[in-house]
Amino acid sequence: MIKYRELEDLLNEYAGKNSSVLEIGSRPGCYAFAHHSVIHIESNIENLKGLDLLTTGSSLPFKNESFDMIFMVAVDYYVEDHEAMLAECQRVLKKGGRLIIATYKQENLAHQVATQDEAWHAFSEDEYAARYKKAGFNNFVIDKIINNPPQNPLKRAVWHFIPRGVLMLRSQWRIYSGIKI
Predict the structure, then answer these.
(1) How far apart are CA 70 and CA 1, in angstroms?
(2) Helices within the chain (DSSP H only)
(3) Containing structural domain, residue 35
(4) CA distance linking residue 19 with residue 44, whole number of Å
């Protein structure tokens, strides 16, 4: 899994201090959190180093109001019952807790859904906003992050001179977040 530096910074900013964090669809250790307790869950990869629990996002084995923040990166479109997953996130988040879904923009998601048997849906930004609201989240925000620099040294050198605004236009990522009411 690729680690996006801007996403890690955003996750840490949203987590605040001394938060309990749940990562759904985990790649343990990919995103570093200072001063936080992080639980990593996954639904289909048993031999993943650092994995805490094998379960699905639609059935979380935690007590109500257990976490300050829940996040998932490039995962939610693989969840068949999206409403059940949002309901479970709502249940296990503390009041004022934040749910963050980092995913590809809709055009890229549509390609994923069309070409992969496991991918179920490709929601638009408006559909994400409606789903968050229906599940009981407010303060819905859409953030974008810039893709990491290319690996090719020549392209990487050029990338650093491209204005941030232009890079944001090309961003493939959308970060959706909302606060539990």
Answers:
(1) 19
(2) 5-15, 82-92, 106-115, 125-134, 153-159, 164-169
(3) 5-180
(4) 26
CA dihedral sign of residues 30, 101, 116, 85: positive
Select from 112, 59, 78, 99 the least CA-distant residue to 179: 99
Burial 124-153 (b: 16+ CB within 10 A, else e): eeeebbebbeebbbeebeebbbbeeeeeee
- Asked if 56 and 7 count as a contact pair (C-beta separation under 8 A), the reply is no
User: pTM for the complete prediction?
Assistant: 0.80
Chain position carrying tokens 């590809």: 104
CATH of the domain at 50: 3.40.50.150
CB of 76 closer than 8 Å to CB of 104: no
Q: Amino acid letter at 12?
A: N
Greatest Cα pair distance in the chain:
51
81-118 pLDDT, tens digit per residue, is: 888 889 999 999 999 999 998 887 777 666 666 666 56
Non-local (6+) Cβ contacts of 137 within 8 A are: 86, 90, 99, 178, 179, 180, 181
Q: How many domains does the chain have?
A: 1
